[in-house]
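Entry for calcium ion complex. Fields follow.
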Amino acid sequence: MIYCVEDEASIRELIVYTLKKSGFDAVGFPDAESFLSMLQKQLPSLILLDIMLPDDDGIEILKRIRLSARTREIPVIMLTAKGSEYNIIVGLDSGADDYITKPFGMMELISRIKAVLRRSAKDEVAPIRIGKLTIDKSRHTAAIDEERLALTHKEFALLCLLAENAEKVFTRDMLLQSIWGYEHMTETRTVDVHIRSLRAKLGSCGDYIQTVRGVGYKMGGNL
Ligand code: CA
């Protein structure tokens, strides 16, 4: 199901008609209010969102979509009459997956929609579960018993690498190469520092990361 939020009736109707002819289910909304109330009831697989709406601003709506855990992952393509870089950048920074400047051809719109849907399907990776720990790479989150962990980018990358290769022993050099890529001539001690802080954040699951004396670290299996 694709939702198309566009106040100009002729454009909205043409989009909905074209989507349906291309095999998509589609519903059009002339304003933010009708769209948001439908969003409460049923989630679409993609949203086409106009920026200039009579009752709200598409960029503000997009921000709200991205803030809510329920709607965060829905791909959004912004439809904009304004081609200025400013609007494009604001739209992308607020989390749009793509934007298309009016006037646009229907073939182009359909191919953009298919590309965004393909991309978001690829991002969906099944969460990794080890004991009480759940790592969701597509959402970039890790949690213990549903409690979200506040990890830094490097800690998260480290946790993913170890968890995806449970029982495999990584030397400090291997971890440096994979996570840091020797980007700042990092010392192997950096690995120990990050492991220590990661274990602390894992709390009761801290011992999932085991030290293999004289070699490095591994994520213990059978937890
Ligand atoms: Ca408009």
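NOTE: The mean pLDDT is 88.
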